[in-house]
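Dear colleague,

Thank you for sharing your sequence with our group. We've completed the structure prediction you requested, and as agreed, I am returning the results in plain text so they can be pasted directly into your records. Please verify that the sequence below matches your submission; if there's any discrepancy, let me know and we will rerun it promptly.
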Amino acid sequence: MLNRFASPISSLLDARADGHSLPAGLYTRDDVFEADLDVFFMRHWIYVGLECEVPEAGDAVVIDIGKISVILLRDDENEIRVVRNVCRHRGARILDAGPTVVSKLVCPYHQWTYELDGALSYAPHMGKDFDKSCRSLKPVQFKSIGGLIYICLADEAPKDIETLDEVMRARLAPYDLRNAKVAHQVDVIEEGNWKLTMENNRECYHCSANHPELCVSFVDLDFGFDPESLSAEDREQAEAHFAIYAERTKAWEADGFPSATVEQVRDCETNFRTQRLIIAGAGESQTEDATAASSKLLGKMTRKDLGDTHLWGHNSWNHFMGDHAVTAMVIPLSADKTLVRTKWLVHKDAVEGVDYDLHKLTHVWIETTNQDADLVARSQAGVSDPAYEPGPYSRFSERALDDFATWYIDRMRAHGY
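Please find the predicted structure tokens below.
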């Protein structure tokens, strides 16, 4: 690891002004990209998938992150495992990226064969004295939080993941994500740095002008506004909205549904925010008309009026509603390219065309993600222009961006940059 005072990256970190966006090099430079992978995707907990993606023994999903590849699978004892996708013989990849079904993990190069728990069971022509017991696939630390799989690729994993687990266990329990299924998945490659992708997601300053489909069910006031810029009528409407919020949150919590805002966004290792948000309009789901997309509700849900339990992490965002859930994972591909993988979840027994319409289920977030991809590309083009200089965040609508940038700088410095 480079000493931060000797690293040219340190000057960029030092140049960041409070309340302002990051210096250009932190979005554009290849050495910063490699440092980001090292710090935020190898040494912190990251969201990579779902238990329900591997419902039966032998189900597996391969996730590639930079030069690293991991296998999320379910073993013969019905337990979740996460192992490195690297054969212990000469390092060949065992499985290709994406989902698959296997009875054993067989390296295609020399047929070294591993059980689903990662133990090496067959290594031809290695001699009688070869000890297979010390050549198991390397395990990866993971934690299932309500059915969401988080991994940490470092030897020493941040311990404050326990706060996220404690907060989300009760919030996610009614949705029973372990008994959901992925109804649809879309991968979008955004032409921008991963931090621009995350910043764009963490504010709704841009929503009313760019996301007509989402704004049917989304209330942009929830993400801040300047009260002095509002007319008396709009200010009165905003005050009424937040009065309803307080009343609704109190009622939800009285009914046993945790709803209040919980943030761990500064002075921490594991960055997250959660809150139960009111859904606008019909109030049921993030669809074109804000009504439920699936008649078969998730898990133990019996109500459609419980809003949107949202959860942010530093490489993910999630929305959990009575009828379906949307999860998005962010994986950096280069300094100016980012993969956004979005999945729509429904009850495992829901039948397409009977219980839900796929277009209604997916339309809002397909459109929103495509619109965001355009905005991120515009942002990347702008920060790459010599005319760019870091601009001020709105203290009303972009406080979360200031939190994120501050956390980013602090974590980079904590790891020696």
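Summary note from our side: Confidence is low (pLDDT under 50) at residues 1-6.

Kind regards,
the structure core
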